[in-house]
Write a structure and sequence with these properties.
alpha+beta, Immunoglobulin-like, paralog of FGE (formylglycine-generating enzyme), 2 domains, four-stranded mixed β-sheet, 9 helices, 23 strands, 13% helix
């Protein structure tokens, strides 16, 4: 095969089945999908499956084994935590397996071994929250993602764009989540952030007048947490609580439905209020105002789970996606790179062909969630759509000092003008977007540049 993009001859294939478990491979069929396609379809018939198994797959050019890392990135389909026998189908992209656009594999061979299932494939990487009764939560495991049950996934951050890099050695981005408006309306998807035992330097690289660029403050976490894949949309917000004071383009529901909920108060709308606004860090995640009518109070009441805004440290750790650079792409800040992150893949809401171009003017407000490039955790729009509220108090003269599970400033709220809360990520109205950027918004003010995403805390249930 001189050019993998053109053809793969069926005569090149030799299939080998190996057995290393009670289960067995009874039949293995390897075929090219179409003469003009690089996709190779493998049908593997399993028998005697009495406990979950994985398929260990190797590809050879004759006796020469192809690099396992390249092979893993070239595979998709049913391979992990298989609980029943029968025909299992997976696919191989030989171009990815060879790591080049053109390849020659004159003696293409596939070897399949049945092995006991690895517990890591039961790890819950995403949670999907139903925002309508019965408000149940679906766990999405690593196996479900890699087996293709949830649609498209990407395990190579560089495939999002060749210029993107990450310090993470375990990348699984659920790219298919952007294709279903369910996750922007009636349901909410959250991604696990593997923070337990990890450390990083919060605010690393932030420029401060008189101090220059900060080296950052050592910060670590005692537990993992989950955070929203998208910013909360107007439709999602309305499923939980009636909107306050209107929203961006609220007179055009078709346009606004899948854009971030904004123009909201940190107090009242999101967390409720008490007499002095001392709810955080003096209180806890259940200190959400006495009337129980705020967004997070209702989320907690509906689901029985500990939903709240993230702390600044949690937000920044999640945003960086394994990097310590200004941008989560692994690059230092530049106007061109920032603009590239914020490129819009689609500027119209789904099924909105009737909208006039003027209704899609992004200079007037945020874009549809999921429009901008994700980071290596698979979080979308972390930079530049709407600035996102965090729990922490904000003082322009006081920087967070890091620590273990930091809760932000404990300085007392001395008066009305000090009741500001941290906002992260920058917004559509600012060209200044970096992982370390921080600003403040008064907890009793509302702003069209201010939105939020939800965090599911480690203790999970109330």
């Amino acid at each position: 095969m001189k050019n993998a993009k053109k053809s793969l001859l069926a005569g090149m294939f030799a299939a080998i089945a190996a057995v290393s478990h009670a289960a067995d491979v009874e039949k293995l069929i390897v075929r090219q999908q179409w003469p003009w396609s690089t996709s190779v379809k493998v049908e593997c018939t399993l028998v005697d499956v009495t406990s979950p198994v994985d398929l260990a797959i190797e590809i050879y050019n004759g006796a020469n084994k192809i690099d396992s890392k390249l092979v893993e990135n070239a595979l998709s389909g049913e391979r992990f935590a298989i609980k029943e026998g029968g025909v299992k189908t997976f696919y191989i992209d030989p171009v990815k397996a060879c790591g080049a656009a053109k390849a020659s594999i004159p003696d293409f061979r596939v070897k399949v071994a049945v092995v006991p299932a690895d517990d890591k494939y039961n790890e819950v990487l995403y949670k999907i929250v139903n925002l309508e009764s019965p408000y149940d939560v679906q766990d999405v495991t690593r196996a479900m993602l890699l087996n293709g049950e949830m649609g498209a996934v990407e395990t190579d951050f560089g495939a999002i764009d060749p210029g993107f890099t990450t310090g993470l050695d375990d990348v699984i981005i659920w790219t298919g989540v952007t294709n279903d408006v369910k996750y922007k309306s009636t349901h909410m998807a959250l991604r696990k952030i593997p923070a337990k035992g990890k450390s990083f330097k919060v605010l690393q690289g932030l420029y401060v007048t008189g101090k220059g660029q900060l080296p950052g403050f050592d910060t670590s976490f005692t537990n993992d947490f989950y955070i929203g894949v998208f910013e909360v949309t107007q439709t999602q917000y309305k499923k939980i609580r009636a909107p306050a004071y209107g929203s961006f383009q609220h007179n055009n529901p078709l346009y606004s439905a899948y854009r971030p909920a904004e123009n909201l108060y940190w107090g009242n709308d999101l967390r409720g209020v008490d007499e002095y606004g001392y709810m955080w860090p003096d209180g806890d995640h259940t200190s959400l105002g006495a009337d129980g009518k705020s967004f997070f109070a209702r989320m907690q009441n509906n689901t029985g789970l500990v939903f709240d805004l993230p702390t600044e440290a949690m937000w920044e750790f999640a945003c960086r996606g394994g990097n310590n650079t200004d941008l989560y792409t692994g690059n230092a800040y530049s106007v061109s790179d920032a603009q590239f992150i914020m490129r819009a893949r689609n500027v119209n809401a789904p099924d909105s062909d009737a909208l006039a171009p003027s209704d899609c003017d992004l200079s007037q407000g945020p874009n549809i969630v999921g429009s901008y490039a994700p980071n290596a955790f698979g979080l979308y729009d972390m930079l530049g759509n709407v600035a996102e509220f965090c729990l922490d108090r904000y003082f322009s003269s006081e920087l967070p000092q890091g620590g273990i599970d930091p809760r932000g400033s404990s300085s007392p709220q001395l008066g009305h003008d000090t009741n500001y809360r941290v906002m992260k990520g920058g917004s559509y109205s600012s060209a200044n977007i970096e992982c370390n950027i921080r600003s403040g918004e008064h907890q009793t003010y509302n702003s069209r540049r201010a939105g939020f995403r939800v965090c599911l805390y480690p203790d999970f249930s109330l």
